[in-house]
Amino acid sequence: MSSFRKDKKDEEEGGSGNPFNNLEKASVLQEARAFNDTPVNPRKCTQILTKILYLINQGETLGAREATDAFFAMTKLFQSKDVILRRMVYLGIKELAPIAEDVIIVTSILTKDMTGKEDLYRPAAIRALCAITDTTMLQAIERYMRQAIVDKIPAVSCAALVSSLHMCQYSGEIVKRWVNEAQEAVNSDNIMVQYHALGLLYHIRKSDRLAVSKLVTKCTRMVLKSPYAACLLIRIACRLIKEEETGPDSPYLEFIESCLRHKSEIVIYEAAQALVNLKTSTSSTSSRELGPAVSVLQLFCSSPKPTLRFAAVRTLNKVAMTNPAAVAACNLDLENLITDVNRSIATLAITTLLKTGAESSVDRLMKQIATFVSEISDEFKIVVVGAIRALGTKFPRKHGVLMNFLSSLLRDEGGLEYKAAIADTIITIISDNPEAKEAGLSHLCEFIEDCEHTSLAVRILHLLGKEGPRTKQPSRYIRFIYNRVILENASVRAAAVSALAKFGALCDDLLPAILVLLARCRMDTDDEVRDRATYYYAILDQQSRALNSQYILNPLPVSVTSLEKALHLYTLDPVDTPFDIKSVPLALESETAEAEKKAGAPEGSRTIQIESTFEMLQAAEPTATRLDVFASQLANVPSVAALNLGPLFKSSQPSDLTESETEYVVQCIKHVFSRHVVLQFDCTNTLSDQLLENVHVALEAPEGWEILAEVPCPRLEYNVSGTVYIVLRMPEEISECLGSFTAVLKYKVRDCDPATGLPDSDDGYNDEYALEDVEISVADQVQRVMKTDFAMAWEEIGPTNELEDTYALTALNKLDDAVRTVVQFLGMQACDRTDRVPPGKSTHALLLAGVFRGGYEVLVRTKLAMSPQTEGVTMHLCVRSEDPSVSELITQAVG
Amino acid sequence: MGLFDKLASFLGIRRKDCNVLVVGLDNSGKSTVLNHFKSPDCKDSNVVPTIGFSVEKFKYKNVHFTAWDMSGQGRYRNLWEHYYSDCQGVIYVVDSADKLRLAVAKDELDILLKHPEIKSRSLPILVLANKMDLRDALSPVKIVQGLGLDQDLVKDKPWQIAATNALTGDGLAAGADWLSDQIQLNLSRRK
Asked: Measured by CB atoms within 10 angstroms of the end CB, which terminus of chain A is less buried, N or C?
């Protein structure tokens, strides 16, 4: 009761418990004039110094002038012999050193204290001294530093070692000379001295791998007294193992394993964690190899110390992500931790169990979590949700339990990040598991009924628009969506209108009702909502399937920025012909998604891809695309711009024409226009004693191709990249447009001085360098396009220009490899998520969509089958396009 | 001021504290001069060039001196002024064998004397013509002329020159006697 009263009082007085509250910088600095008084009043000055330090640590910034004044006033305090005051002064010097000017003035006096008789002064003086010294002054105090490192008082030695470590950053050369002293300090009996000395030694030798490995070998032989030093040694050894990529027979590994039997817990944990990290980072690990580390962690799980339990369960959780079998042995111990008083430990234990446990235990564990989920922080809730997502993919049959649990989580309080994680999980489960779709969508519908996060509501509405019409009973979602139109803010309303339109486009029986609703939306107060409603109403009213798929279901095929630029150009230079959207370069929407797929972790990549496509569909990124960058670059090359090639269609990824680390490095980027190709050769000269002049690429073009222009690079200095352009006209016949060109780099060499880069003599000699062939493939001439409804697009194009053929891909023996190869070869977009092969299937249908240069739409339907008799994959390919020769080219190219 | 302090000052046995500033060009012997006054057990065996400043405390004839030993190197000379405000005396050390830089020493002394904190007060200034044991050392009279001490600038301030040898301590006692007398005089005048 009394404590309650006290709390209340504190609240009323606004935290009066802190005497330094409401300090003002100006008044404190005014008070600091007391430093100049003689004789010094130690108590008063200590108080004032404390106030200054408090202010600085609270984030108050002092100007250089103010700081310098305070600093010089502070130097007067050196006349006092008061120990407490002197130590405060050291702190003050350290804090003010980076701001004030002329701080080196205290060098001599600090040196005196550091070498003096008063032991209380010495460590602090060393630290302050090192804070004010720069490289030039360091030489003056070097002698004292060396002595301090090997001082017999541990505190002095520690201070000197740590300060040296700090000084390594700006004057490594001088600190390097103190190796012998540091070496001596490693042998110290004091645990902290040993630890810091090892740290300094490692830091000095960091860049020299051989020296580091020598250090580690030496230290592993002697027994380190200090557990901290042992931990550091384990970390260094780990880094060495990673750098050297030695196998399991590395001597360092042996050392780390021996540390599992160390007598200090901290070392044992460090070793176990190091082993886990090392083993899980290499892909091929059996649970047996992790065994020793895991069993040590298992022991820690039943330790009475909560920190140990937490550390152990956290590491086990990490192991469980990649290697659940290894952790299965600890299941019993983890079960005990579920009821741990510490919620963080309990949460981690449960999520670990979820990853390792069997399907049968899911129900029980979910019930366990539900009992305390409201008591843990958002951060841990996200961990739980992540575990549930993994469960969803692992046990698709359990989706009912998981969905119910997630929806109850959605109803609870929580921040945006937490809610987004839940929604993501539901979306992942829906997309992976068709059975869960209906239930998941209805949970999400319920959630947006009461959702305060606009971004999340918009996303869910988009998902509803996409998935809803294809469910058995689309009409039940209409009410939820229209409720948004009535109740929410403008951006949610706009998203709801778009979702409604998709229902109208796909469900004929709902169309009249949707038209009525859209007509009402045209009365909305917001411009965007009205615009969308009018637009969709006009299209739906036509009742044409082709229009629907083109303008409602398929996203805009071009990026918004390029469209804006093209329209701007059009308005600047008005012509009689109407604006043609085909002149706008197509958006590379899946390119970024793919890059993310490569970068993302194997577990989460799928959802990342889905999310990123979402984001891009909703708002095309406002930054300039890669294509725009290249287009403006090419426009700046006069002889290329003069040819007036039209809009840039596609730029390929750079491909290497030389081995890396050769004399000259050349990369080629192919820029494809509707009838031309511009080859951009980025050349780099890696020889420091050569200067290249008049660099050009001699290209042997096959029949039908014509070299229109060539832009040589006049000068190629060492390590400066230069660019050569070649403009080619493509053959008239589209079917001849594939080719490979032999390329030779030709140039004039002038030898020069490596140091200055100036040529030795005026004359040089001609030389050449063979490059690899430049290939122009189908993928270079095709741009990816996303089709949401492939079947409809397929019907739209019609069978007029259809070609089909069957191939045997003998080199491949896995379906997903085959899919990846075909997608990469044709450079088209896989539709309806057919780029993912469900595991365990022997046949697969891959649907691809793209646009050929010149704006011809191309659709490809492939059927892939594993043939049991012969090795490899059989592929049946069917191409439809708007131009017969394009179909021909593609079938021809695959063969 | 505590009751004891009041009593002590009434009886005239109060501890006398004073701050003196020790300045001069580099390598003139400031730290060595101060080293001489320190008690035997805390004397430095070798004196190194001072970087910035150093504070030394010593007792000479009933007066407790706190000496601010400033570095004489060119880059630190402009930092002297930070310590002008609270000193009761200035010791200006000159290397009497360094004829070439006597002009520099004069310039620095002029700047010091023109500084508002010094100009307005009648501080005693003790000039030590140090290193007089060297063979080509100038006589104190020459130094007085060289520094321009016979001109108007210092006419309102008590000053004294002493020829010294800081290594042996010759002549230091005479200078210190004069300075402590002057400072005590100043202190008693203020009361």
From this structure: N
**Largest interatomic CA distance in chain A:** 105
Distance of alpha carbon B186 from alpha carbon B167, whole angstroms? 30
Which residues are CB-contacts of B103 (< 8 A; sequence separation ≥ 6)?
B146
Structure tokens at A610: 């889905």
Which CATH superfamily does the domain covering A627-776 fall into? Answer: Coatomer, gamma subunit, appendage domain (2.60.40.1480)
Contacts of A464 (CB under 8 A, 6+ apart): A441, A444, A445, A477, A480, A481, A499
Order of strands, edge to edge, in the sheet holding B125-130?
B53-60, B63-70, B16-24, B89-95, B125-130, B159-163
Q: Does domain A780-894 have CATH number 3.30.1490.20?
A: no
More confident residue, A649 or B57: B57
What are the residue ranges spanned by the domains of chain A? 480-553, 562-598, 627-776, 780-894
Residue A376 C-alpha, separation from nearest chain B C-alpha, in angstroms: 57
Calculate the alpha carbon distances from A803 to A785, A878, A886, B178 in Å.
Answer: 20, 6, 10, 117
The 10 Å Cβ neighbour count of residue B165 is 21
Smallest Cα–Cα separation from A559: which of A529, A535, A591? Answer: A591
Residue A132's closest CA among A85, A173, A89? A89
> Which segments in chain A show pLDDT lower than 70?
1-17, 246-249, 279-289, 357-359, 555-558, 574, 581-625, 757, 839-840, 868-871, 895
Q: What are phi and psi of A29, to 5 degrees?
A: -65, -30
Q: How confident is the model at residue B156 (pLDDT cuts 50, 70, 90)?
A: confident
Cβ distance of A107 and B19 shorter than 8 Å: no
The CA-atom distances, in angstroms, between A195 and each of A127, A162, A267 are 17, 10, 13
Residue B24: the pLDDT is: 92
* B51·A76 Cβ contact <8 A: no
pLDDT at residue A557 in the model: 67
Which residues are registered as beta bridge partners of B93?
Answer: B24, B128
CATH class of B17-189: alpha beta
- The alpha-carbon gap from A592 to the nearest alpha carbon of chain B, in Å, equals 58
* Residue A615, CA distances (Å) to A65, A443, A456, A620, A779 in order: 50, 22, 11, 8, 26
CB atoms < 10 A from the CB of A346, how many? 22
Please report which helix (H) or strand (E) contains residue A478, including its range.
helix A475-487
Q: Which amino acid is at A880?
A: R
Domain boundaries, chain B: 17-189
Binding residues of B for GTP are: 24-31, 72, 130-133
What average pLDDT is seen over chain B? 84
> Residue holding tokens 């209409």?
A478
Beta-carbon contacts of residue A17 (< 8 Å; ≥ 6 apart) = A10
Smallest CA-to-CA distance from A843 within A862, A871, A826, A824 is with A862
Euclidean distance between CA atoms A286 and A842, whole angstroms? 29
Distance CA B43, CA A889 (A): 97
Q: B53 and A111: CB-CB below 8 Å?
A: no
What's the pLDDT score for residue B93? 93
pTM of the model: 0.58
Residue A87 DSSP label: H
Tally of residues, chain A = 895
